[in-house]
């Protein structure tokens, strides 16, 4: 059986997984369309599904004590969507996973996915790879937030995550950096001025 075209990106990103294993995943997966602003997982709900992102963008967000949105992570095409902590603890999710644009996902019931790890080492390896990526992303975000000024935080993204700057709106970048939109605008102007040496 030939796999649908949307597996091409996933097969390239995870070359250790065989065609037969992708077919196995396909048998327990469902393609879902999610509109901009809709949730893959809502705050307070227990996670039951994970998904590969076939197209679109998502944000992992929470509300601070003042009720302002804070973004802890972004996901793009071929990334993995999940809140494993909520699933394993059977606890309400402390984050929402929300589409930032119309998106298509390959949704998988985690309960059906987990037994496959015991039978297919390649899938277990992907699971470990995803976990490692998550830890690295969390560590990087914590480092960004440890930087004192909005300028330092924004400059880190410009230097290390330029693709994020291109894809994400300024409002959502500000929420990811835990600064106001105005502070981000000032940081962008200042960084631009410094890069030009204050004169053209």
TrEMBL record:
Residue span(s) of domain Cyclic nucleotide-binding: 23-116
One Pfam assignment: cNMP_binding
Organism domain of life: Bacteria
InterPro entries attached to this UniProt entry: cNMP-bd_dom, cNMP-bd_dom_sf, RmlC-like_jellyroll
Official protein name in the record: Crp/Fnr family transcriptional regulator
